[in-house]
Amino acid sequence: MTVGASTDEALVAAAQRGDPTAFDQLVRRHTATMYRVAFRILGNSAEAEDAVQEAWVSAWRGLARFRGDSAPTTWLYRVVTNAALAQVRRRRPTVPLEPTAELISDGGTVDPEGQAVRNEEAALVHRAIETLEPSQRVPLVLRELEGMSYEEIAEVLEVPVPALRSRLHRARTTLLARLREMRDG
Questions:
Q1: Ranges for the RNA polymerase sigma-70 region domain (predicted)?
Q2: Does the domain at residues 3-90 carry the CATH identifier 1.10.1740.10?
């Protein structure tokens, strides 16, 4: 089996044995996803890039301690989430989340007026998400924008599933209230 066709588990095992090519393949395979998560948490591309770099350094340093209790992707989500949260803690106030065409386009052809309305609505939602506290923003981003399961998110955040469900409920409730305020105000 070639390195390019290896599973994440096989790549991690090879990297733990000292194979730099295996770790390089992990980086190539998962950087885009890690960047997307960091950007959605931080709302700033430069900070997201920094968080991803920090995450990869942390992953390299922590590689020997990875026991395989979770999937490598779950571990990498945890590492990048922690790096992004460290960025959030280092700065105040939060930087506005800049919606991008990638995040708001449905990929289909639509009339310009309809697309403009959808873009405006998406921008409003992203601005409302940026106002959430990190303890609410992170699980909401991982669930609603990244499509992760409750179990995966609970593992990433190292919280029990019932606690995660509670955080998500509060995040959704707060998000809806903020959206109402933004539309009415």
A1: 26-92
A2: yes
